[in-house]
Amino acid sequence: GEVTCVVGQTGSGKSDFLNVIAGVKVPSSGFVDVKGMKVHEYHDLTNRHVSLCPQKQLLMESLSVEDHLRMCCMIHGASYHKAKTQATFLLQMFGLSSMRRHNHKGLTISETKKLLVAMALSKSPSILLLDNPVDQLDPEASFQFWKLLQELKPERSII
User: Fold this and answer.
1) Name one GO molecular function term (predicted).
2) Which of 41, 83, 118, 156 could make a disulfide contact with 90, Cβ separation 3.0–4.6 Å?
3) What contacts 53, CB < 8 A, 6 or more positions away?
């Protein structure tokens, strides 16, 4: 695995670029190839390999931290029991176990970012797309976040 950073000024298209790779947006020209398949021709197949952690929060107020993870696992095909086991693993991996029953509004910015990445990892993608992952984090939290990404690197490519 490897970590690749996309750098550019505000409004330069970094988010659009990640959305094209994820198959959320159609490119204006050319194509994106994932595992030998064109994303927009084989979206159902390529979607299994790619997971996008968007810049904006997509969290539901009525769900706990654990519920968000369990729901994501089930959306990606896990049974309830498997989803519960996988959610527990992700909570431990990201140091969120003590917050498992908390509503996301009680989380710090750093904890929220971790939850969003854990949700993106719920389908075990080989390519993880992170849109501005350290935005709004203080230097120490940013350092810890990059350290965590290094631990995830051997199993996947991170952009």
Assistant:
1) transmembrane transporter activity
2) 118
3) 116, 117, 119, 120, 128, 129, 130, 131, 133
Domains and CATH numbers, the chain: 14-158 (3.40.50.300)
pLDDT (tens digit per residue) in 85-100: 999 999 999 899 999 9
6-28 mean pLDDT: 91
CA dist 58 → 6, 34, 53, 103, 143 (Å)? 22, 25, 9, 13, 24
- Integer Rg of the chain from CA: 16
Nearest to 27 by CA among 41, 8, 45: 41
The H or E element containing residue 65 is helix 65-75
CA 70, 124, 128, 34 torsion: positive or negative? negative
Report the distance separating Cα 99 and Cα 65, nearest Å: 7
Residues 101, 107: Cα–Cα separation, whole Å: 11
